Amino acid sequence: MDNINEHIITRHLKEVVIVPEHVERTESAEFRKSKKRLKEDGHYRCWMCGSQENLHVHHVGLEWSLANIGDFAKLKEFLEMFDVYGYGRLLKNQPITSVDDIRNMMVLCQEHHTGVNHENGGSGTGIHEITFPIWLIQKLAKDGVHAVPQAGETLQEAEKTVKEHGSD
């Protein structure tokens, strides 16, 4: 089988999403309760990189703005499979009635939530900026290897780490 040489993929994604009408977002009591529990349970650090700076709480399965068209039974089933903190298993017998349910929460630093690294021509590092499999390699790659250039890292620096470790 022939090897395919290391290469850079540049995509220009165009998403078309119809977001239903909704009220202006405010923190619900359930959202505040979920955030408090994440802190109490030791999860208040970025799920991606472990940072404790500039933290956001992300709706991981169903976005807040899409809640009006979401199927909460399907959300519950998904969150029992993609159970980042174990709450899906722990609360398995309880229905989900809100996107602010703790099972739908993931703590991310700003860089891995909405971050864009403008030093690399606007390449994204946040879950809202790039496709899920490419976002996820930031967590699953070998330590020090960045297939997605991180803040302050040039494309050439990231390419060098991939080249050094990619053929192990």
Description of the structure:
With 168 residues, the chain is of the alpha+beta class. The chain has one domain. The protein is 30% helix and 8% strand. A two-stranded antiparallel sheet has the order 1-2. A two-stranded antiparallel sheet has the order 3-4. Strand 3 and strand 4 (123-124) form a beta hairpin. The longest helix is centred in the N-terminal third of the chain and has 12 residues, at 29-40.
Overall outline: globular
Question: Can you count the beta strands?
Answer: 4
The major beta sheet can be summarized as: 2 strands, antiparallel
Provide the β-strand percentage band: 5-15%
Helices, by number, come to 6
Secondary-structure element series: HEHHEHEEHH
> Structural class per helix/strand content?
alpha+beta
Average predicted confidence as pLDDT: 89
Radius of gyration: 18 Å
Span between termini:
17 Å
Pick out its properties.
about 170 residues; alpha+beta; two-stranded antiparallel ribbon; 6 helices; about 10% strand
